[in-house]
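Complex record, two chains
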Amino acid sequence: MLKGNIIDIKHMAVHDGPGIRTTFFFKGCPLHCAWCHNPESQSAKPELGLLQNRCINCRMCAGVCPNHIFENSQHHIDRTACTNCGKCVAACPVNALELYGRDITLDDALKAGLADKAFFADNNGGCTLSGGEPLLQSDFAEALLSELKKHHIHTAVDTCGAVPWSSFEKILPVTDLFLFDLKHPDPAEHKRLTGMDNVLLLENLQKLDQTGKPIEVRIPLIPDYNSTPEALAGFAAILGSLKNLTAVTILPFHHARFKYQALDITEPLAGLEPCSDETAFMVKKFFTEHNIKVSEN
Amino acid sequence: MPAKCSTPAPFDTVRRNLEKQYADADYTPGWSEEELQAAFQDFCRKNPNEPHIIQKAQLLYLICQYAPIAREENDYFAGKVKHYNLLLNLRSKWRLAEAIKEFGKERLEYFIGDYTAQLDCNSHICPDWVTLLELGLKGIHDRSAALADTSDFHRAVKIAFAGVMILCRRFDAIHPAHNLAQLAERPPQTFIEALQLSFIYHELIELDGIQVRSMGLFDRLYNRFYLQDIANKTLTREQAAEILKYYWIKFFAKTEGKKFGKPFTFGPEANELTYLAFEAYGEMKIHDPKFHLKLSEKTPEKLLELACKVIRSGSNAVVLINSDLQEKMLIENGKTPEDAADYILIGCYEPAVQGKELNCSGAGHLSLVKPVEQVLQKASADWSYEDFEAAYFDQLEKNLALCIDDLKRWERLWPEAHPAPLLSGAMTCCYENNRDVSAAGAKYNTTGVCCGGLADAVDSLVAVRELLARKLVNNITDIALIMEQNWQGNELLRKTVMHKFPAWGNNNDEVDELAVRIANFAADRINTVPNTRNGVFQMALYVILNTAQNFGSQLGALPNGRLAGTVLTLNTNCENAHDFNGATAILNSNAKLPMHRFPNGTTLDLTLHPSAVAHNKGIRTLMTLIRKYFEQGGAALQFNIFGKETLLEARKDPEKYANLQVRVCGWNLRFVDLAPEEQQIFIDRANGGDLC
């Protein structure tokens, strides 16, 4: 039985494509962006998260597993010994522990995807596969999207593009809209903060454009990294070359500190100031002046 | 001199005065309370055999003729009388005397939090606005005067309306621009006259404590006046908008924005006045009066879009109603299709036919969750969950029967306790039946039983099932003991229940099925049961805040984690902070309920974060949620749009957030006016799925 590896399913998502949507967050990503606001989605393996602000120090977790350590009422996980078995998650009475990454069957995924069908009908609402990178699980993605299409549901795939073109080919017939993330137009800069250059993903973007599928490009706006005049000019050149671009969405950088803390990972851009409204406004204005449609959110 | 229609003072410049003027009214000289009382007692002495209905009409007449009346300067509308609560006190005296005779004093004070049943003391009514506007005061007076010799009812109507006509002439002497002298003699002929007449009539009906709980199908009633004035070039659209603001602020001023809010109904079709009304209302950013919008396929998207913009801008006292469902339900409950099309919502959410129905919609209130406590207290250790559930339904059945029985006893007292000649006089059905509303003179006479605490009941049953199934307790008497101790010493278990157990409102079929079963069980035992007024009982599935607090205060701890004494969950909402799956899941759960089986009304409050409805897309999102929920069978929907952050800020800085509205149940209040524990309810609800 085909299974997907997901983190979460979010109903009534209004920022992941048109209309009201249900978004599936897949686990595992080829990129490791320094600003990532879903760090739990990077590794394909299950990971245990500890949400300190929920923890009430009841130590029920320690009762089922010795890897939970309490020192001066401070809760730690011995990550070297933790096997991500999830026993502690079941024992925690306040959901302070979460296991990121779970298998989901196609049937269950489809059931979740159809639950809000009534609310999809207008404005092209539907389902979005996001993550992480859904195309790292292209077989499951294809199977789920095919089933959704059988039920006449609008489908969108939010991708970083850094996967073999064959993965795109697989889902093309059952995908109505691509949300394509662009981080930086320059290959070296791209590699510096995501771990990989942008050659493959730009190639895929051009190929995707040839297929005629509508593409919404999404740019996480990271102050001083990709908000520079050179970067913007580079983005404009890429976007200007696309025939099937519906709009560009600007996603201003904000910290997701608690998520890094939950995983005991150091946030790479911990010291960076969040993107200001002014910067976001200027960038939107820049694209508008270059005849590129900017979406309203 | 009051402002004239042709030269309006800009509303915004006088708004603050208008808001205060009603409460701090300056009165003309008139009779004192003692003088009026003495004159009334003199009348009763000289006419010892007059029935209550004549006595009441006579007291109203005396007030109209001799009581001080308010000078409301620079106002388009007049109508306030210094009435010293004389009519209300008279009614209360009669009501208490009758009730003691029937029930005994002790029984009246007996309340354990299972149900309340009484004569509908805040009787929710919708006057016959059509007849009032068509015949005018004199027309109504004359038609009953012609029959005054034949019945006490017509004689009482004649006296009451003669009084109102005198009062109009008295007002005319101090406010000649309002045309009140003409309104005493003929039906209204202009937009402003029609509004003035409805205002003064509503004002006088409320003197005896009856609440006019619907100002009617507003856009249909007044559009002809508006269009005619526009055609005659005696009014512009802008002037009409100003007049409407002056009109609505009267209702706000009357309650000082702290009570239930006066309902006005619109739709489903839109006319010129519908748009004008929503635009003017939206500009006022106000929570009282409140707007009910009947929505069907006939409603233009443009109107729904306008309504959604008004809601998002902070005026969330707008209730959306699924009109097709309501009409179908009314027909199923014995109304003619023509009458069903004329329905309005009375008070909060109770559908009734405008001017033809006396729905005692708030007569009975019943806690769906009290039986959980009652049954746990007598549970024995060998009970399975199924035994417990069966006992719950048995107890619910008993409570329902007691409530309905009490209501019937109350109803029989009504003609003596609460005749209402001023209200009944305009109702053409009462005129034709020659009977007051209190004597079942209306065409339809229904009695409501409002069932509340659905989420707490469902989640408590589920919790009992899960506690036993997961072996977190030894047996059901353990649960009873934990409840008795108000969860003390079992805090972790309580947290487990609250965070990890399935709950109502998350589109979980297994849980929702139980909610449907409870709702159907109650509906089977309420709907179509004959009342004593030639009508039937009708189920509502909602609970207003006061009742939820009242029931909650008499209720011990519950298996769903609720602590003793706390407020019940309102309406068909999920428990606070139990919306783990978002707004669509709450709507999906609700859509499974048999909405057509709640002829006394139901509603859902949906709390949305502003980010979910931002930009143009947000308006489309709101429209989709409403339309699609109704397509699935939802009955009524209202919104609270704010984040927890905003509410916490408002608590710290009440002045800055003075106008922040929260939907309390059937009405809105300013958040900053709520008591801290009431504020907490809304903070918790805006908290999303985060319980910590």
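Note: Residues 1-6, 688-692 of chain B have pLDDT under 50 and may be disordered.
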